[in-house]
Amino acid sequence: MITNQVLLLLMLSILWPTIALPFAPGNIGNLFGMPESDGKILQRSKRGWMWNQFFLLEEYTGNDHQYVGKLHSNMDKGDGNVKYILTGDGAGTLFLIDEKSGDIHATKRLDREEKAMYTLHAKVLDRNTNAELEPDTEFNIKIHDINDNAPKFAKEIYFASVPEMSEVGTSVATVTATDADDQTYGNSAKLVYSILQGQPYFSVDSENGTIKTALPGMDREVKENYQVVIQAKDMAGQMGGLSGTTTVSITLSDVNDSPPRFANHSFRVTAVESTVIGAAIGRIKADDPDVGRNAEMEYTIVGGHDIFNIITDQITQEGVIIIKKPLDYETKRDYEFRVEVKNTYLDARFIHGLQFKDYATVKVTVEDVDEPPVFTRNPYIIEVHEDTAAGSFVGVVSARDPDADNKPVKYSIDRHTDLERLFNIDSVNGTITTLKALDRETSKWHNISVVATEINNPRQTTRVPVFIKVLDVNDNAPEFAMSYDTFVCENVKAGQLIQTISAVDTDEPLVGHKFVFSISPTNPNFTIDDREDNTANILTRRGGFSRREMSMYLLPVVISDNDYPIQSSTSTLIVRVCACDSRGNMQSCNPEVLPFSDGLTTGALVAILLCVIILLMIVVLFAALRRQRKKEPLIISKEDVRDNVVSYNDEGGGEEDTQAFDIGTLRNPEVMDANKLRRDIIPEMLFPFRRTSPIKDNTDSYCFIFIFLYLFS
């Protein structure tokens, strides 16, 4: 290895002509700023330094301080009166100067990569007076580079990918290294790239580090991952240069270059006949060495199938066979169909000459199970007329055992769906009958569930909904659609409309409702006009109504329908007599208060008199009862014992006759039981007790009401 001293000598030899030229005879004057003369002695007009810049090699390894250079001023006569002072970058620490000789030394090893140049200032002083002999002058110390840094990559390992089957020269990735050495000086930072591992599959561009494919037809299904080692070497790759390496992990990405293939071209699947529609009965799988969307497959049944279908499981890429229609072991037990598989995504570069599909045969065997009964219909809709008597026929449901044994079936009604127990069913033949009469106006539909159960296996049951529609029978008469508030004016004329009425009927005839309205033809006050649209007009037959004569009229209206049998009803329309203005607007309907002398008739006076007499009799009777209740009891004390005089036609029973008389009654006649008499003799009371029965009807109230109504009518 070349030592620093040898390198220093080499640099001095290179730079010597430049350094020595100013000191050659005839040039010294130029160096010091003196003009040429013809042997005349001239005086120095200004100072002249003997340096421009210094060069220093980095990474000095000697034991002594590294010599940098020498400062010298023409003011220095060599008598030791001149002192050199150094300031600036590293002065006094990195760089030291001999005050007398001006020699500069570096005290530490310097690294160009840390700092490439130092700027310092030099002064020349008089040692005795410290006066400046020369102005402050700047100079540089430049650090010369040596190849002491190896190339480095940003990462220890890189990841890259390239499609399989790529052509030779396809770019994979570019990796670059950096060198901290001086790129402007020599070849210390000039890098050359090479591949140490990964041939013959890949190559690298020596100048820019671009990795490319070098082998055609690389197949991911054969080998997917490659480890490539790239080297970067400085000194332009020459011997003695420093180098750095990195690893590039290259993965071949997939392309659809492999078609799907069945490992077995025949599959056998078993399914029970009770499998529900849409359920899976088996799976088949084709192999595709590709990955991702290049391995996505689609399964289909060639020509389709009525019973089965096949779909693709997007996660496992399997073909799932499902049921489209129910299986029946008793009808057909074996099926066979052909399945095709193909890729959903094709790459146009690889479809030439390859068939990207495959075929397989699937055989399905149906197994028998004990099935529940099956109804001939689902649901049942049955119609029955309302008012049908209990025990009447409604309809029949039928179920059978679909198994080959055809076991017997019994029927029942789920009572949770028939809480009112309106229906019954024959457990053997499935005949539904009524238990009660049905009313369409109460419920138009009855929804019940009928259960069919195998007699030999009660766990096998099937239920079916039965919807029973109750048909209408004309069993309801029409009536007023609403309550009418009808009045007639006192000054009304004959033939004037006072009310339009309509009717409703809870029945629903097939041809719609048609109502007929009528009143008594002998009615002297009102008449009716049937408009034949289920409404009618009430008209006055006369004029001159008076509230004094009659304040209210009750008009019976007969309403009939047109269904069979015809139903009719009589509704009463209340017509009040009211006072109206000239336009017919009602003003008052209250009865007029008339003078007593003018309005009372003989019949009214007789009625009032009778009511007064009855009231007086009630008051007298009430007072008599009050006095009787206030009388003292017969027995005041326990010692006061009195008897009622009773006559019997036989002799007493003596001491043994204990039922003939109750002494307790004598002590408190208020609690005497009138019904507890002697059982062997009917007594004949000399003074029978008579109790006045209370008046059952409120005659006094009726009289008051009658008087009030008559006075204010």
UniProtKB/TrEMBL annotation:
Subcellular location field: Cell membrane
GO cellular component, one term: adherens junction
Span of domain Cadherin: 73-153, 154-262, 263-375, 376-480, 480-593
Top-level taxon in the UniProt lineage: Eukaryota
A GO biological-process term: cell morphogenesis
A Pfam family the protein falls into: Cadherin
Transmembrane segments: 604-625
UniProt keyword list: Calcium, Cell adhesion, Cell membrane, Cleavage on pair of basic residues, Glycoprotein, Membrane, Metal-binding, Repeat, Signal, Transmembrane, Transmembrane helix
Gene Ontology molecular function: beta-catenin binding; cadherin binding; calcium ion binding
Main location as per UniProt: membrane
Protein topology in the membrane: Single-pass type I membrane protein
Keyword Lipoprotein: no
InterPro entries (UniProt xref): Cadherin (IPR039808), Cadherin-like_dom (IPR002126), Cadherin-like_sf (IPR015919), Cadherin_CS (IPR020894)
Endpoints of the signal sequence: 1-20
Record keyword Transmembrane present: yes
PANTHER family, alphabetized: CADHERIN-23 (PTHR24027), CADHERIN-6 (PTHR24027:SF322)
Stated name of the protein: Cadherin 10
Organism annotation: Oreochromis niloticus
